[in-house]
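During the second year of the project, the team shifted from modelling isolated chains to modelling whole assemblies. The rationale, set out in the original proposal, was that interfaces cannot be judged from single-chain predictions alone. As a representative example for this report, we include one of the complexes processed in the last quarter. Its constituent sequences, exactly as entered into the pipeline, are reproduced here:
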Amino acid sequence: NAGVTQTPKFQVLKTGQSMTLQCAQDMNHNSMYWYRQDPGMGLRLIYYSASEGTTDKGEVPNGYNVSRLNKREFSLRLESAAPSQTSVYFCASRRGQGGGEKLFFGSGTQLSVL
Amino acid sequence: QKEVEQDPGPLSVPEGAIVSLNCTYSNSAFQYFMWYRQYSRKGPELLMYTYSSGNKEDGRFTAQVDKSSKYISLFIRDSQPSDSATYLCAMTPNQAGTALIFGKGTTLSVSS
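Output from the structure prediction step:
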């Protein structure tokens, strides 16, 4: 059972380059999330999708776009990467939006922007 | 003031010690309280969750919530080197459409 799969695991970009981080889940979950994790800052929500066809901004959405391609896949795009976007990015999913729903995380993408 | 405050540590203890990890919060609407464990270079995994106030025990782990003080704790008894990880508290109101709010995480090291 794969759970939440993120690709790539590592990426180095130059300032101004674009890229898309891919995320797929095989648990038939409705809600999907993108977080970034920085030293001393904890996990911060970038964007989320409560259900297929909807997306909403989180705490730190500037510089990012997302696409909920279908129920399984939720991608995060950096149109013009900046050094401030150097971080570890985590995709997560859960069955619904209720408070008690368990959140499942992928293994992360380590992104460096030079 | 951030909604969730957590001391990042690091916290170093010898094997067998009792560990106490804590978070405070400011939003009285929070109803669900969780602890996630994150090993190095891995994604967080849910360790414990509690609804509203009270205690919950699972093996060597006990989660406590004191809503009157807006304070949650995770206790680890007989700590093991395998408990060395970052522990993140997380919480959310009981309403649809809201995401989890995470603390910054506390890094724990248990030495043998």
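Chain B has a mean pLDDT of 91. The first strand of chain B starts at residue 4 and ends at 6.
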